[in-house]
Amino acid sequence: MPNLQPDPTSKDSLDRVVYIEHMDAESVQAASVTMRQANADHVSADEVTMNLSAAGGVNAATFSAQQSMIGGANAEEIHVWNSAVGGVNGTLVNVQGTVAGVAGQSITVEGARVGLAAAQEIRGGRVETVVLLAGRVEGEVHAVVDTRGAIIAGLVGGLFAGLVLLVGRIAFRRE
């Protein structure tokens, strides 16, 4: 697998644009990276665009992916359509597809399945999520556990664990 790192001795090494098609890469670092039907372990750039591609991790200022698989993405602005993502962290996040976890300031989710969604503001339509932690929610969002439910579950779980420890300590006390 090639390692598409810039030459550290070059002054403009991070000013280049990298286009990867029908190729596997270990690590890609540039000003702008476009991937089409390609795979990379890690991508780092100001702007990353993926189409029918896969990446283990992406760090970018702006990240967009369509019909791709991403292990994790960290960017200021994220747009993901019809893709599967392990984790997403960004300021402005737009997601359509399947995401294990998404965190951000403002999240827009359309027709997506999300494991954990945490944000100050979540907007969307036809969103299914297991755990929802949000300050403000707009749209049709179906959560198994919302913010209030998560707090109650934590309190009940902590109370139950405390009682079990107390009973165990009393029952198995050595004198």
Count of strand segments: 5
Q: Low-confidence parts, pLDDT < 50 over ≥5 residues? A: 7-11
Principal-axis shape equals elongated
Radius of gyration: 21 Å
What is the strand content? over 45%
Which percent range fits the helix content?
Answer: 10-25%
Major sheet size, sense and barrel closure? 5 strands, parallel
Task: Give a short synopsis of this structure.
The protein has one helix at 147-171, and strands spanning 17-21, 24-36, 39-51, 54-66, 69-145. With 175 residues, the chain is mainly beta. The model is unreliable at 7-11 (pLDDT under 50).
What do you see in this structure?
This protein is mainly beta and 175 residues long. It has one domain (13-145). It has one helix at residues 147-171, and strands spanning 17-21, 24-36, 39-51, 54-66, 69-145. The radius of gyration is 21 Å and the shape is elongated. 29% of the residues are buried.
Which terms summarize this structure?
175 residues; mainly beta; five-stranded parallel beta sheet; 1 helix; 14% helix; elongated
